[in-house]
Design a protein that fits this description.
Shape: elongated
Number of helices: 9
Radius of gyration: 22 Å
Strand content: under 5%
Distance between the termini: 55 Å
Order of helices and strands: HHHHHEEEHHHH
Oligomer: single chain
Length: about 325
């Protein structure tokens, strides 16, 4: 068992370190561009919120799981348990919302790229920004339930009647309240997932129609390079597909854990690992598809000019 715990601790440590460094590098990249006077795109601001949410998720879930994996138990007090679980829930939920807002905004951008309705684009940009800030407030309010029911183990206390999360415990014996709280947590996520599916379908349909129009054009007028909007759309579609895959795996694990009064050690750790997959992979996925990040880190491309997209009109 000690070997398994050590291996789990190493996995959590790797996820946390790699994920935090990746998200922090991406966040610093955008902050650097902003400080030198570069005009950030609307999607860049949403990605910055996403990276902050990812860092919060990784720190509040990865660090405690790493400590627990290396054999330390009950290392948090009541306040620590309440804050760690509350901030993890906020980070995870805001990550869901930010990914959804990112896909919705990009869907609107590519649908309006051939129009000059700049006023509508400005209103959409402001609406999305306000929605991201509102999602932080709403999820801080929802996660406050953890402040009431999550606690540490007291000295010489038996935990047979408490739901264990390895280093903290859920103290709520009312199944009705548990179900209501689970529904309260799932409702925003289901709405955001629905928006992602709708936005992704719109983007796929728009790209398909654009490809058909390009095939009908004479070969001498066709460009071998895809437009910046198309490249950004494909990146966000890849991000959404990755998110939905990892989120589905994480949700299934959490569902099994919620149905069991005493979830096993293996299930608790697998659930935690699944919840850290997307925050770990997300920044590298975005950096690999963003030419501005390449020009920032690679000297050979640092003097290249950044491509202008239709989003520049509203910033």
């Amino acid at each position: 068992m000690a070997t398994c715990e050590l291996a789990v601790g190493v996995i959590f440590l790797s996820q946390t370190v790699i994920g935090v460094l990746g998200n922090f590098s991406l966040l610093c990249h955008y902050l650097f561009l902003y400080l030198i006077g570069y005009r950030l795109l609307s999607t860049d601001w949403i990605v910055m919120h996403l990276t902050v949410a990812n860092i919060l998720t990784l720190l509040c879930k990865g660090v405690p799981q790493t400590i627990a994996g290396f054999g330390s138990k009950d290392f948090l007090n009541d306040i620590g348990c309440k804050l760690v679980f509350s901030f993890h829930r906020v980070g995870r939920s805001v990550g869901v919302g930010s990914t959804s807002f990112l896909s919705v905004f990009q869907a609107i951008i590519i649908r309006l790229r051939n129009t000059r309705s700049s006023d509508f684009k400005v209103k959409t940009h402001k609406c999305i920004c306000y929605s991201v800030y509102l999602s932080w407030l709403i999820h801080f309010f929802i996660s406050s339930v953890n402040l009431m029911h999550m606690r540490a183990k007291y000295i010489n206390e038996t935990t047979t009647e408490l739901k264990s999360f390895l280093y903290c415990y859920w103290d709520c014996h009312d199944k009705t309240r548990d179900i209501l709280y689970a529904a309260l947590l799932l409702a925003p996520d289901i709405i955001f997932l629905g928006l992602m599916v709708w936005a992704s379908s719109c983007m796929v349909l728009t790209l398909y129609r654009h490809k058909q129009k390009m095939q009908q054009m004479p070969r001498n007028k066709m460009s071998s390079k895809s437009s910046p909007e198309s490249r950004a759309t494909k990146t966000i579609l890849l991000l959404v597909c990755t998110f939905v895959s990892f989120y589905t795996l994480s949700s299934l694990c959490q569902l099994f854990g919620a149905l069991l009064y005493k979830p096993s050690w293996s299930l608790v750790n697998v659930t935690a690992m699944a919840s850290l997959l997307f925050p770990t992979v997300c920044p590298f996925l975005l950096m690999s598809r963003d030419s501005r990040v390449s020009s920032f880190f690679l000297p050979s491309t640092r003097n290249r000019t950044f491509p202008k997209t239709s989003e520049d009109e509203i910033n």
